[in-house]
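User: What would this chain look like folded?
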Amino acid sequence: MNKKDVINLLSKILYFSGLDSTALQLISEATLQHTYEEGQFVFMEGEPCIGLYVVEQGWARAVKISASGREQVIRFVGPGDVFNEVGVMAGGVNVVTVEAMEPLKLLIIQRDVLLDLVDQHPTLAKALIENLAKRVLYAMNLVAGLSLHSVESRLARFLLTQAKGNIISRKKWTTQAFIASQIGTVPVVVNRAFSSFVENDLIELERDQIQILNQQELQKIASLTE
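Assistant: Here's the prediction, encoded as C-alpha cells.
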C-alpha cells in the first residue's frame, strides 16, 4: 500500500476517524507493513510490543498458551480490526500470542508515535479507553462463561453468536479443535457436544457451514448454568 492508501484505510477506523489530515499523515509515515503466511506467529506473549496492529487482509487469532501447551482463544481479528491496544498501553509488552489463520496483511503503527498522538488528541485517547473497557468486559464474560457454564452451554452460545441468520460459515481453519480452544475445552469433549446437538436435531453439520435447526432450544441451553 502507498501512503495515500494507508491514510484512506486509517481514516475509516474508529480510533483515527477524528484525526486531522496532518495527524493521519504522521501516522502513515510511522506505519510499517508486514505480511504473514498461514500458521506464522505475528508476535509472542512476553515479547516487546512494537505497536498497534491494523488488519488489512486475512484473519488472525489471539491466544493465551499454558506451559503444557493448552490454548485459550481470546479473540479473532479480521479486515479493518485493530489489536494489541493492551500491549501498547500496559508497559509495552505483548500480553497474548497472535497467529495468522490464513495469509495476512497488517499495518503496524509504532508504539512511540501512537503514544505521542494520544497525548495530543483527546479523541484518540477516548477511543482507546473505550475499546480497552470493552476488552475488560469481554474478559469478564469469558471468565464467567468458563466457570459458570457447561461445555454444551458454551458451545450453544458460541454457535448463536457466530451465526448470521441460522448459518455459521466455516472457514477451513474452523475445526472442532479450533472451536474447543475458543470455548475453553478439548476436542473430544466438543465432539461429544456436537454429536448431541446433531442427534437432537438442533444443528446440521456440513463441510463449509453449520446450520442451526432449533434456535430456541439452543438459546435455552446457552442460558443454563452448572
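The chain has a mean pLDDT of 87. If you want, I can go into more detail on any region.
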